[in-house]
Amino acid sequence: MGTDCHPERVCLFGSKEADESKDDNDKQKHMAFSVVMPALEMAQETGTLIAWHKKEGQSVSKGEPLLEIETDKAVLEVEAPADGILAGVAAEEGAVVPVGKTIAWIVGPGEPAPPKTPAGSARKAANEFARSVPVAPAPASEQPAAAAGARLSPKARRLARESGLDVARLQGSGPGGAVLAADVLSAKAEATAADFETPGSVGRLMAERTTKSWTSVPHFFVVRETDAAALIEARERLSSAVEQEFAVRLTHTDLLVALVARVLTKHPRLNASWIDGKIRLNSEVHVAVAIAVEDGVVAAVIHRANSLKLGEIAVQRRDLAQRARAGRLHPADISGATFTISNLGMHQVDAFNAIINPPQAAILAVGSIADRVIAVAGQPTIRPMMTLTLSCDHRVVDGVRAASFLNDLVENLREPEKWLR
């Protein structure tokens, strides 16, 4: 007799006792799931709980929106990690919550909420929760107003805080007098004391991180000029095939990501991290690409870039750039990088020194491709040249290792298609 029994599930049929046994089994298998303030960014210590989509005692389904939180970069919508009942809610809307703190539980019917998460496991719980729960930026039209005081949208609240404006004095033009982002921007423009521009979240975070890196990481720089003719030709030859298979435009950055990722596998120190006074050799290659956004620069990550096809890298780079500029990056998009590429060639910059993104050990700065007169076989020749500047953390990388990495990268750039097979 056929059944719909899942091959990994014990199925009982034909009696009331069997059904009751199955129900008891299911109850025993149910376990409480903690909802914690997730760690979405490397330097994040707290998060602001913007809104609950469910009330205590209500049923929740795995994957449905459960709450919204705000970080330095965005308002993010967190989905429920399991089916059950929302219980033990320990944080109200508007609360600033430390990373790793349990703010609620999802339990079975009639099941009590467990005790609090031990303090020592808070950060681990936050990291695990962030990895396991899908998080997406909440659409602006669906972001709720603040729970207490003046009613503000999350973006308006953030703008008001960054601008130093008194919320109580703001006049709202939204439904029911709610203060919208446009109201805050208007008030900021009219404020006579606003003599200096206040950076937004991304700009402020970038300023803090680059200042900390520059003042605490012992930088040194290695520069190499290389002929980019083969890179240009490879892009022209490979573009049509990539566009046909992946429906994406191939860029020089895509080729650089692919080549750099492959070279990094031969130079583990360049793919390493400096953490707690020790060198950690990373087992995988995750290449971040610096992307300009309205308020600064974000480094979006192409994970396991050394194992991806060129077209797959191009698709990811395009999607990351689009989401970054729309303010819709996911937590995984900005975490885990082991090396960064910053390409300013499209802005006609000949060469520049980039600042390392800790705990990474290096960052590659790429200048523009421009025709220059060089000597070839003792004769002056015009060639398309490109300058590469490698910034290194001297605690992890020495000059010889840096030079060896650049030498191998230049060799790959001379025959890119050979190394991308």
Describe it.
By secondary structure, the protein is an alpha+beta fold. The protein folds into three domains: 31-137, RNA polymerase II/Efflux pump adaptor protein, barrel-sandwich hybrid domain (OB fold (Dihydrolipoamide Acetyltransferase, E2P), Beta Barrel), CATH 2.40.50.100; 145-198, Irregular (Dihydrolipoamide Transferase), CATH 4.10.320; 204-419, Chloramphenicol acetyltransferase-like domain (Chloramphenicol Acetyltransferase, 2-Layer Sandwich), CATH 3.30.559.10. 30% of the residues lie in helices and 24% in strands. It is built from ten helices and 18 strands. The protein has helices spanning 16-29, 122-132, 154-163, 181-190, 201-216, 229-246, 252-264, 310-325, 399-414, 416-419; strands at residues 33-36, 46-52, 59-60, 65-70, 75-79, 84-87, 96-98, 102-107, 135-137, 219-227, 272-275, 278-281, 287-293, 296-302, 339-343, 362-366, 370-376, 379-393. The longest helix is centred in the middle third of the chain and has 18 residues, at 229-246. The N and C termini lie far apart (52 Å).
Helical amount: 25-40%
Low-confidence stretches: 1-28, 134-150
The overall strand count is 18
Proportion of beta-strand residues? 15-25%
CATH architecture of the largest domain: 2-Layer Sandwich
- CATH class (first level) name of the largest domain: Alpha Beta
Structure annotation, total helices: 10
- Indicate the overall shape: elongated
Main β-sheet description: 7 strands, mixed
CATH superfamily of the largest domain: Chloramphenicol acetyltransferase-like domain
State the order of secondary-structure elements, H for helix, E for strand. HEEEEEEEEHEHHHEHHEEEEHEEEEHH
CATH fold topology of the largest domain:
Chloramphenicol Acetyltransferase
Structural class: alpha+beta
